[in-house]
Amino acid sequence: VVYVNGKPIAEPWIAENISSIIETWEPGSFGGQAVGEIIFGDINPSGKLPLTFPRSVGQLQMIYNHKPSQYFHKYAFEDISPLYPFGYGLSYSNFEYSNIEATFSNMDKSMIDITFKLTNNSNYTGEEVVQLYFRDSYSSITRPVKELLDYQRVSLKSNESRDLHFKIPIKSLAFYDLDMNYCVESGKFEFMVGGSSSSSGLISDSLYIYNRVEYK
Question: To pair with 32 at 20 to 30 A between CA atoms, which of 25, 51, 102, 172?
Fold first, then answer.
């Protein structure tokens, strides 16, 4: 099935019963050629969704960075998972994430290094859009369960492994507290890396920040 559309299509039956779906959005005059190249294997797809697909209109509002008390607790017997999560996308390659570690990269602890290994466990050269999320586990106000922090596109040959890293300024974790101070509060921060926002595909490591930092 090839979708040509301007907004998300919530069709669980198609997702569950059709072996392959290509989302083209509004691809323009060369869209047919692009779809043909994907179907016949001339191109290895690597696109990712910039939004979340709900299973039905009853799931709206459907977002990935919800607060713990919101959106995912609607009906007792409804499947609460999205049809396709933010950042989702398939490839002819199979990528595996491992060995994540979060550390401070300098003495004043103003930068954070997130290192991990990415492996292409397939016979096809492919590109993966690696996504980094974080969660502030203890804060004075309720923050989202996941926030997109950074991403990068990586090309790996067949069966190639590579050590990768993100270098993140600690200021990227800041928010406005109850007194409207832009700050990073002390506490536990969880960093998650994967190919989408779905928790089942993310690997994680935690880092503790012991001193509050305020920014003017």
Answer: 51
Domain annotation for the chain: domains and CATH numbers: 2-43 (no CATH), 95-215 (2.60.40.10)
| Segment 41-54, tens digit of pLDDT | 999 999 999 999 98
Looking at residue 140, what is its pLDDT?
93
Q: Is the dihedral of CA 99, 144, 57, 27 positive or negative?
A: negative
Decide if 124 contacts 92 (C-beta within 8 A).
yes
Is the bond preceding residue 70 a cis peptide, omega within 30 degrees? no
Give the separation between CA 68 and CA 80, rounded to whole angstroms: 13
Task: Indicate the pLDDT class of residue 57, thresholds 50, 70 and 90.
Answer: confident
Residue among 72, 97, 93, 81 at smallest CA distance from 15: 81
Tokens representing 11 are: 């069709």
The reported pTM is 0.89
Q: Whole-number mean pLDDT of the chain?
A: 92
